[in-house]
Write a structure and sequence with these properties.
The protein is of the alpha/beta class. The protein has one domain: Rossmann fold. Helix content is 41%, strand content 22%. A four-stranded parallel β-sheet has the order 2-1-3-4.
Length: 94
């Protein structure tokens, strides 16, 4: 079964969709099977119920039950390699 990665931003449409698509491509290039979904922050709790990782486009203001990754890194490319390596490592353990 594929791992589930949730990407969230304010509306779940523009930024999170862009980051989710980029992460899908990067994970595929690494040979990692993952379902990457973009959601609005308002839908985050429901989306995280069966998720393996959360990629936050906006800075989280609380703790989550799954590992959290920096979505801005995937948006800007700054520190992207480090965040991707962390994400790939986690998902390969699933």
């Amino acid at each position: 079964m594929a791992a589930k990665v949730v990407v969230a931003c304010g509306s779940g449409v523009a930024t999170s969709a862009t980051v989710a698509n980029k992460i899908k491509k990067l994970l595929a290039a690494e040979g990692v099977d993952a379902d990457v979904v973009a959601v609005a922050v308002s839908d985050l709790d429901e989306a995280l119920k069966d998720a393996d990782a959360y990629v936050a486009v906006v800075k989280p203001d609380r703790e989550f039950s799954v590992p959290v990754f920096n979505g801005v890194a995937f948006l800007t490319g700054m520190n992207q390699d480090e965040e991707l390596a962390r994400l790939v490592s986690l998902l390969r353990q699933k």
